[in-house]
Design brief:
The protein is an alpha/beta fold. It has 13 helices and five strands.
Length: 265
């Protein structure tokens, strides 16, 4: 039976780094970020338009994994049926690669776990939570360097709200047996233990090759995602240095007032 996994958390929390580590395992495969359930359910656009967006995502994923297009073009009346096709597409892609498990990483899918479970009831979820101050600093810096993709992060209020919503969504599943919640800081300080625990969630043994993840990172990053290039770098618990550098005292006070307390995991 194929093991299905979703890696979620607020953007800039180390999810791409963790994804690259997991994808290095000999029995796990992964893909660039798809945003499938975002496209299918997020926003107020008409259902027909959302369905077309979902079909476009499946076409893109099919192109990445060499899946023939006829499989993808299946109009449905219910959005859930598009979700079922998407899960079958990833299952088939993993089998083609000889994998026993696949990991789908889209950070905002944390907000759609209930929807995902209607089409993949036995799916496993890994949640990454990083210090909110470091996340806000990284998001805000990206709004300057990549405004075409991250322009929304110019607002500190929006950045804080994005982190709060993501963490709240993850904490709802803290005690569920099919979910693992890890902090980025724990991943950095105790990498092997965290990876071994994550592998066990999928019924797999830890492999030491997972610590040499840099070569795999390019396989899970889309060509336009140049801001993820640091996923190939050595592990380091940075972020607060940037936070203390780019923000004024008044900005830091506002951020710390807006952010929820960091959870103890």
């Amino acid at each position: 039976m194929m093991e299905r996994g979703f890696l979620v958390g607020c953007a800039r929390s180390g999810t791409t780094l963790f994804q690259a580590m997991l994808a290095t395992h000999s029995h796990i495969t992964s893909f660039p970020e798809t945003h499938f359930f975002d496209r299918l359910y997020w926003g107020r656009k008409a259902n027909t338009l959302r369905s077309l967006r979902a079909l476009w995502v499946m076409f893109e994923v099919g192109r990445w994994v060499g899946q023939p297009a006829p499989f993808l073009v299946r109009p449905h009346l219910r959005r859930r049926d598009y979700g079922k096709d998407y899960i079958r597409l990833l299952d088939d892609a993993a089998r083609r690669r000889g994998a026993r498990a696949w990991i789908e990483k889209t950070t905002s899918h944390a907000l759609f776990i209930d929807k995902i479970l209607t089409v993949a009831p036995n799916a496993k979820f890994i949640h990454i939570i990083r210090d909110g101050r470091a996340v806000v600093a990284s998001l805000y810096a990206l709004s300057k360097s990549n405004p075409q993709y991250w322009g929304w992060a110019r607002s500190l209020d929006v950045c804080c709200d994005r982190w709060n919503r993501s963490v709240r969504a993850s904490l709802k599943w803290k005690d569920h047996p099919n979910h693992r919640l890890y902090t980025y800081e724990a991943l950095v300080s105790n990498t092997e233990r965290i990876l071994a625990d994550a592998c066990a969630l999928f019924g797999l043994e830890f492999e030491t090759a997972m610590l040499q993840f840099q070569a795999t990172a390019g396989e899970v990053i889309a060509t336009h995602e140049d801001w993820k290039s640091n996923a190939t770098a050595a592990l380091k618990s940075n972020g607060l240095e940037r936070y203390n550098t780019i923000f004024s005292d008044a900005q830091r006070q506002r951020i710390e007032r807006l952010l929820d307390p960091s959870p103890a995991l």
